[in-house]
Design a protein that fits this description.
Blueprint lengths: L1 H8 L3 H4 L8 H9 L4 E4 H9 L4 E5 L3 E5 L3 E5 L4 E11 L7 E14 L4 E9 L9 H8 L2 H9 L3 E4 L2 H9 L2 E8 L3 E8 L3
Antiparallel strand pairs: 1-10, 2-3, 3-5, 4-5, 5-6, 6-7, 7-8, 9-10
Length: 194
């Protein structure tokens, strides 16, 4: 609580974070609900994901699983994100392409070595393929955990630039906890250890 009070009382903090004054009184009420810190929008994270996808995972001689760019949803009540993954299964064993999907929800962590936000603590749902027989879907679900691990574990969702942190570091602060809000993320700022 003392750190939050300290952060709010620092006169240069809003400018250092690129904050702007709210345009309307209604916005001011919404801004008061948000924790102070560095904001990252859903669009910024979606753009970072688009650089990594689509991905192909072959099961040699049997099938290919092609993952499209996930669609992110914010889960502020759980302080997590949800990635809705579209998957196409095709190959000799299936005779034609089948569209399906699965969901992965995950937490985030800050990696100081390269100033990135990364996915961690993945929880995935079962693969859904409405046009495939249930026994084939069960077989594909054996690959689902590896698919989620390879496609999203530690995936970079945002990278802070050195200029983003220059003023923050000059004030003796560093990125801390990450909060999922209704509009994106807020990376909290904490005092650097002495």
């Amino acid at each position: 609580m003392q750190r939050r009070t300290l952060l709010l009382s620092l006169p240069g903090l809003p400018a250092a974070l690129g904050a702007t004054a709210p345009a309307r009184a209604a916005d001011a009420d919404t801004d008061q609900d948000k924790p102070p810190g560095y904001a990252v929008s859903t669009e910024q994270m979606q753009q970072a994901l688009a650089q990594r996808f689509p991905l192909r995972y072959p099961v040699p001689g049997v099938l290919n699983l092609d993952l499209q760019t996930p669609r992110l949803r914010l889960l502020p009540q759980r302080n997590r994100l949800l990635a809705e993954m579209a998957v196409q299964a095709s190959g000799p064993a299936l005779h034609r392409a089948h569209q399906g999907g699965f969901d992965v929800d995950f937490a985030l962590r800050y990696e100081a070595s390269d100033r990135t936000l990364r996915a961690q603590q993945l929880h995935l749902s079962r693969l859904r393929f409405p046009t495939l027989r249930p026994e084939v879907v069960d077989m594909l679900n054996a690959y689902a955990p590896a698919l989620a691990e390879q496609s999203l574990r530690e995936v970079v969702l945002h990278q802070l630039q050195p200029q983003d942190l220059k003023a923050v570091e000059a004030m003796g602060l560093q990125p801390g906890p990450i909060t999922v809000t209704e509009t994106g993320l807020v990376i909290g700022l904490v005092l650097k250890p002495l």
